[in-house]
Amino acid sequence: MSIANILQSDQLNNNELTKLIENGTELLKLSIVQGMNSRMNPKTYRFKPVTMAIKKRSEQQVSSVAMVISEYFNTLSPEKLNTIKRSLGRDKLITSAIRARGLNMRSSKSIIEQTNLQSLFSSINEKTFSETAVKSMIADISVLADRDATPVRDVILNDLKSLDIRYGRLLPARWWQPLIPAISAPDWELDPGRPNPPERTPNRNVRFRIHKVKCVDETNPEWGGDDEISWGGVTLDDKGHISKVPEKKVMNGFSDNESKDYNPPTIIKDFPLNSDYPKEFLVTMSLAEKDSGGLSDFIQKLYEAVEGEIIDILTKLAGAAVGATIGGSIGSLAGPLGTIIGVIAGAILGKLVEWLSGFLKDDIFKPQASSLFLETANDTFPGGGLISPKQKLHYKDFGGHYTITYDWEIT
User: Fold this and answer.
1) What is the pLDDT of residue 9?
2) Whether 77 and 215 share a structural domain
3) Structural domain containing residue 167
4) Are 236 and 310 in the same domain?
5) In this structure, are 28 and 175 located in the same domain?
6) Residue 257 pairs with which residues in a beta bridge?
7) For the chain, what is the domain count?
8) How do residues 241-264 score in pLDDT, each as one tens digit?
9) Would 129 be classed as within a structural domain?
10) How much is the pTM?
11) pLDDT digits (tens, 9 = 90+) for 40-80
12) For residue 220, what is the domain's CATH number?
């Protein structure tokens, strides 16, 4: 039995992942600009957004990020499109990136095709993305790390190690080490005469549940009225299937420090479990002020596109630098690498929505993601529990701050 790991896209602290997310986000921003230029002036800008053939467990056709955003722009008025174009033209980070990378925005080749991926993603290689390294990444970004010792056991051991035994009988060095198994063992293991406990039924389902949505601070300007908040999102199961979290109004009017509680908790997604392990599950949630009109559909399409772009980039690198081992893992999207790709996609999705919201002037908060990784059918949370400690997703945009309190439940 092992400990289930929870990962959050807003708590990444791994250097390789951070570089991949930063560079991947910049590439996709440039791809969006290229696609928008093509839509608004197709005679000058010859690039045409297309779908990508992505291999997960089977080959699938996935829309590129440029295509998803281009389709979304089709729903906007010409006035708003011109406003966006002017805003992008004043984005110094975008214009400097185009010059620095020597990109030809009028080319029929995509930004990805014009980019030396091996140079840009030089940190991705057989060593940094080996099976061992990927597991280490999961440990780095785990909200519930798999610990060798419980806090209580640590306290006991520290007390034992600090005992002053100068006036007692001499004991060998590190005399306390044999006590470690006994201190960490369940009570029934300490009494050989006591019958073993019954075997626990293997896990059958896992659920993502929301307990509370809280307004820590209203969006600006606060004098214009209380915030009307909706949620939406997307989920990814262990087979790579993406599902939409239906858009739902949370509350008509949020004020500072006001909360919407759910008792019993609202089940966002119930994932069935089978006998194939390891498994990973991802839930990406977004909040929007007022009814955004298709928030969940937009988030789902954009997440699918971002994930597809990441798989496409890693697959291209696998042939040149990463090697057959990682390339094979990408094809199946199973186990730790699938978890990492899901977390990367969630983090990039959040950065793109945050960037786009600045131009669209739509109050869609940067999406946040939580991922659960199960090594075996008997995994539990720390202490042997089937319900994780409650965690919080933080949404800080437009001068406001909201939190979603959630947990994972194994049934």
Assistant:
1) 65
2) no
3) 152-190
4) yes
5) no
6) none
7) 3
8) 888 898 888 887 788 889 999 999
9) no
10) 0.72
11) 888 888 888 878 877 665 567 888 999 988 888 887 778 87
12) 2.60.40.150
177 and 49 within one domain = no
Name the pairing type of β-strands 51-55 and 5-8.
unpaired
Pair 157, 240 in one domain:
no
The amino acid at residue 382 is P
Structure tokens at 274: 């089978």
Residue 134 located in a structural domain: no
- Examine the domain organization and report whether 354 and 217 are in the same domain: yes
Three-class SS of the chain: CCECEEEEHHHCCCHHHHHHHHHHHHHHHHHHHHHHHHHHCCCCCCCCCCEEEEECCCEEEEECHHHHHHHHHCCCCHHHHHHHHHHHHCCHHHHHHHHHCCCCCCCCCCHHHHCCHHHHCCCCCCCCCCHHHHHHHHHHCECCCCCCCCHHHHHHHHHHHCCCCCCCCCCCCCCCCCHHHHHHCCHHHHCCCCCCCCCCCCCCEEEEEEEEEEEEECCCCHHHCCEEEEEEEEEECCCCCEEEEEEEEEEEEECCCEEEEEEEEEEEEEEECCCCCCEEEEEEEEEEECCCCCHHHHHHHHHHHHHHHHHHHHHHHHHHHHCHHHHHHHHHCCHHHHHHHHHHHHHHHHHHHHHHHHHHCCCECCCEEEEEEECCCCCEEHHHECECCCEEEEEEECCEEEEEEEEEEEC
The whole-number pLDDT of residue 118 equals 86
Residue 364 pairs with which residues in a beta bridge? 288
Query: In this structure, are 179 and 209 located in the same domain?
Result: no
Q: Which of 119, 111, 68, 17 is nearest to 345 (CA)?
A: 17
Using 50, 70 and 90 to split pLDDT, how confident is the model at 233? confident
Same domain (yes/no): 250, 378:
yes
User: Is 132 a member of any domain?
Assistant: no
Once rounded to an integer, what is the mean pLDDT over residues 328-339? 59
Residue where a domain stops, chosen among 134, 163, 190: 190
Q: Tens digit of pLDDT for each residue in 14-33?
A: 777 888 889 999 999 999 98
Is residue 141 a part of any domain in this protein? Answer: no
Q: What is the phi-psi region of residue 293: left when phi exceeds 0, alpha when psi lies from -120 to 50, beta otherwise? A: left
